[in-house]
Structure formats: C-alpha cells, structure tokens
User: What shape does this take?
Amino acid sequence: MSIDPTAAQSAPSQPSASALERFHAVIPAGGVGTRLWPLSRAAAPKFLHDLTGSGQTLIRATWDRLAPLAGGIMVVTGRAHEDAVCRQLPDVGAADLVLEPEPKDSAAAIGLAAAILWLRDPDTIMGSFAADQVIGPVDVFQDAVRQAVETAATGRIVTIGITPTHAATGFGYIRTGRRLSVAGAPDAHDVAAFVEKPDQRVAERYVASGRYLWNAGMFVAPVALMLQHLEANEPELHAGLTEIARAWETPERDAVMARVWPGLKKTAIDYAVAEPAATAGDVAVIPGAFTWDDVGDFAAIARLNPVKDGSGVTVIGDTPRVYSDSATGVVVTDTSRVIALIGVEDVVVVDTGDALLVTTTEHAQDVKRTVESLKAQGADDVL
Assistant: This one.
C-alpha cells in the first residue's frame, strides 16, 4: 500500500457534518482481563460481562455510545469470541468483523482495521475505542469524539485524554501543549509528550500541574496518516497488515490471515504510531471531561457498583445468596451457594462453578500473579 504523506497531512478542515460523514469507529475487543479472574477468562473476557449492573455488557455499551456518531463500526476480536460477540452485536456485518487467530496487541489490531478502511475509502477518519471501558455521561463523551473528528480532519492523529481525578500510577499520561485553533473543536490542544506510568510522587505532581491527562488509548485519525506513521516506524508490520487487507474482500481472506498474522510483531499502537507521531508534531488531544474507568480489577467493580443497602457489601449476580454482618466489600457470584461474610472489611469474593477467589480490594491488582501461577502449573482448564 502506497500512502502519499503530503496528501495525508494536508487534508483541509471541514464542517462538522462533512467530517462525521467520513467517520468509522473501530472497537478492539481483546485481552483476557487477568485481574478479574475467575470472572473474566480466555473464553469469556471482561468485555462480554455486565460489570456495572446496567443490564449491558461492556462491549454492547461501547457499541451503543458510538453508533449515533459513526457511519459504520468495525470490531476486532479473537476468533474464539466470534459467536459471543455476534450475539451481543447482531448488527455487525461479516466484512466489519475482524477475527484474530491469536492476540497481537493493539498495533496489529488497529493497523489492520486502518488498512481495510483505507482500501475502501482513503478519506476515512477512523476512531479506535476499547470494548472494556465504562464511560459517562454518554453525551459528554460523544461531544469529545465529535471534537476529535473535527481535529483529525485537519490532518492530525487525535487522542482523547481523561481529566485525572486522582494521582493514579496505573495509567500512562499525556502532557498537553498549546491550544489549537480548530473550527468545531474548541478544546483541542497539541500533545507535548506521552509519558509512561509514573510513581506516586510524580503522579501527584502531574495532577497538580493541570497539564496532564490520563492516556485512555482512544485514537481518532485519518486512516492515511495512521498508516503513514505505521509504515515509517514498523515497516514489516505495515507490510503484513497491507497484505491481509488486500485479501479482505476476496475468497483468500482466511488463508492469507492464517499465513501472515502469526508472524506479525506484537506491539502497542502507542509505541508503533502515537509516540513517534507526537515527536513529529502530528498528534493532538481533546480533554475528556466524562468519567472513565477501564475496570482493571475488582476494586474498580466495587467502585462502579456502590452498596445499595445497609449491608456494606456490593453484590453482583443473577441469583445471589449473600449474608453479611459487620462486613464490607464486593461479592460477584454466578452460583446459588450461600456466602456469609462476618467481621471482614474490604473483602472481595468471586464465586464461580469451578473456582473461588477471596482477596481484598487493596490486593485486587495481585490477582494477575495468581493467574500467572496457575498458568505455569498447567491449570488451563480454569483460565
């Protein structure tokens, strides 16, 4: 695929309706969510669960937020999740469902979507939004996306950064630069730098400065510009994705995917595209004033599902049987087993048919180590 860099960077600013007409959303739905084991597993990752008590799975809520804005939505997910994703998203067409034979991280997933969309229409503006995030209010999020599309139409890769609510050490940060003059995007700023996850002291300094945003991994960009930077920084990955994309609308799709995909480099879109593009001055940011949570562990589930009664315990499940006395925490259950909590604080209990997890919200991040240990022991039947 040959991209004309000059054409990609000189796209004129356009009115909102025209820019949105070019907008196509992409939902990467990957990752197991190991810190949410045993609820989230390889066969049923967290984006297929309702973790907020809303009655919607995370991927369905993501689709519904984007559908009013996008001319189309592409979903990139694992082949093992095809049936479950199609049940959740019956409107996704076969041509817009990209099934990965194996996980290859975000650069391959988003890059392939960009390559397919470029071949359909090189003027497309794509937006990538992970399937496993909790966001609200929806209208505030949608306004940020509209501003991002407007800014992307001027020839920029745009990220939506989250206004931090506390000095988090688990997220990367974006340092904002000068305010940009973009019609229809009054909040657009230049990106001065992407910053790795900081320690507590540095995170506190970032938040106090007012110049830093959380990096939520949301990117909106002209597909031509996205591919231009991918080709410059990861030429072999770009070449492989181009080969798959060229076969996408042909009977050779599955054969080419099976041959090329396993050899692709595993890397994040941040390293392959966003950070080098920021160095080149091609990245902008829209601050997101909405609430955002990546539901990274069971402490997040407790935070997103406040206790609804005087029990002190958040309970999630279709038929929960939970008794508590002087206890606080969260219980997630899909069994009919009685769970009694007496005199324990900030406890996390996850009860499934074949595995039981007991920890505390303080140690919720450590669940990942348990999964790694079980995998090393060959206990794949519960992973």
User: Anything to note?
Assistant: The chain has two domains: 5-293, 298-382.
